[in-house]
Specification:
The protein has 4 helices and 6 strands. By secondary structure, it is α+β, with helices and mostly antiparallel strands. The chain has one domain. Keywords: Signal.
């Protein structure tokens, strides 16, 4: 009886560990991306000095590789640089592909000021991907 309970418990722990590691996404340059909820994802910078370019690049990569977004689909900024809600890191930015579902209003005539990171700003996945080539530490 105790052996059976321990076996069920250990299988449950393995399942939880697999689910946790599977939910984390790492970009090619080392940024981490976690889902906050069904429509919002959070890019956690490699350091507190992560640039806006790195956040947009990671959002683009996640949209393409994890969400199967097209190049013309738009990525919207939900929350600018701040404390991560999925980790204990100090520098994270939240994005969505569905602004209405995330409760934000897209900025009309959007001209993104790269370092402003204001909610409602958006770029096409392709535009954000252009910042990936501008990151010096990329491998």
């Amino acid at each position: 009886m105790i052996a059976q309970v321990l076996r069920v418990f250990s299988v449950g722990l393995i399942g939880m560990t697999m689910a946790t590691s599977a939910s984390a996404f790492s970009t090619r340059d080392g940024a981490r991306v976690n889902q906050v909820n069904d429509v919002v994802f959070e890019v956690i910078g490699r350091s507190t000095a992560s640039s806006a370019q790195q956040f947009w690049c990671a959002a683009s990569e996640y949209a393409r590789r994890a969400l199967n977004a097209g190049w013309t689909d738009r990525v919207y900024l939900v929350q600018g640089r701040g404390q991560s809600v999925t980790t204990n890191r100090r520098s994270a930015v939240q994005f969505t592909m569905s602004p209405q579902a995330a409760g934000i209003t897209p900025i009309e005539n959007n001209s993104v000021r790269l370092n402003s990171l204001k909610p409602g700003e958006s770029m096409s996945v392709q535009q954000a991907n252009l910042y990936c080539s501008a990151i010096p530490d990329r491998f």
